[in-house]
Amino acid sequence: MKKYSILILLYFSLTTIVSNAQDQKYILADFNSYNQSLNNAVEHHFSQLNDGEKVAQLIMPAIGAYGQKEVTIDRLVEEKKIGGLLLLNGTKEQFKNWVIKYNSTNKENGNLPFLFSADAEASLVNRKIRNSTPVKKANKLQTKKEVVTVARTISQDLKEIGINYNFAPVVDMSPNKTVGWRSFGHVPDSVIPWSDAFIQETQRHNIIATAKHFPGHGFVEGDTHKKLVYINGEMKEIKNYPPLIKNNVTSVMIAHIAVANNSPFNTKGLPSSISKEIVTDLLRDSLNFQGLIVTDAMNMLGVSTIKNANVRAIEAGVDILLMPLDAAKAHQEILSKYKSDENFKQKVDESCKRIIRAKLCTAGKLFPNTP
């Protein structure tokens, strides 16, 4: 009888442990904190992926008016070659339907859930997501309170759609005509505190915020959509990032901007997005950023003409390739390198685990089949 009592007690103890694990709740604030349960969950889900599925986590194409056709995304999802999706220029209702569709497909196929992203900046959101709640553009905001209100309004729309990753705010200064009107740089002293306010309000809603465009687009001339542009000498906007990193911004976007006449961070005529000096040596090591590093769109002319740019971006230290020209080809190139280069494999594995961690934190719970 005593033996059976012990077995029954052990059974209920194990049941309680499993139940508690399944009931574990995560929030985005856990991303940068030590959490053994979260660490274990990341390792578990990582261990369940094959090589191709690990590589897929790093690839994020777009769907919408300026993205890939739905049939192309359907194929990439079925073939398990992508880990996220940028919803780019469409209606709020269409985006919501796509989130529902791909969440269902991923569940059926045993894929990890996606990071669904958007360019939901104050200055762009109402054009990028039609029928979204109207907000003032960034360069029209006058107080931090207004910034918080706008961030809250945007976040509520994103949550309604199912978007968990916002490529905002722009923390560049205002002189550049391409990005300046999209930041809070019209009041120079407000760029850091207002950007931080936008980030904190966004992440309070369990949506990843993104400081961009690192290392700084405000004082360069030209448009990286059209050509490679340069920072010549001092990177004046780097000072905008340490306070945001200290306050746990989860993501930073790397621009396709070259840096010249700046030792030790000269990019040798290449965009920052494929420069180890900028991505790893400066952002990851010198500024101690531990979050997600995402490229600006890889189809922009500042990088798209460079041979093997997808692999080179991962080698430089980025976690997520945004909008590669051909996502299936990018997957093939990265997977081939993954299987033949141990150092490259380690980089991909580290990025994959960061992405899984972000997915668990934004989901707020464990994925199915977690022990």
TrEMBL record:
Record has Hydrolase as a keyword: yes
Signal sequence segment: 1-21
Catalytic activity: Hydrolysis of terminal non-reducing N-acetyl-D-hexosamine residues in N-acetyl-beta-D-hexosaminides
BP term (GO), one: peptidoglycan turnover
Domain Glycoside hydrolase family 3 N-terminal residues, every copy: 53-357
Record-listed E.C. numbers: 3.2.1.52
Alphabetized InterPro entries for the sequence: GH (IPR017853), Glyco_hydro_3_N (IPR001764), Glyco_hydro_3_N_sf (IPR036962), NagZ_Beta-hexosaminidase (IPR050226)
Family according to the record: Belongs to the glycosyl hydrolase 3 family.
Protein name in UniProt: beta-N-acetylhexosaminidase
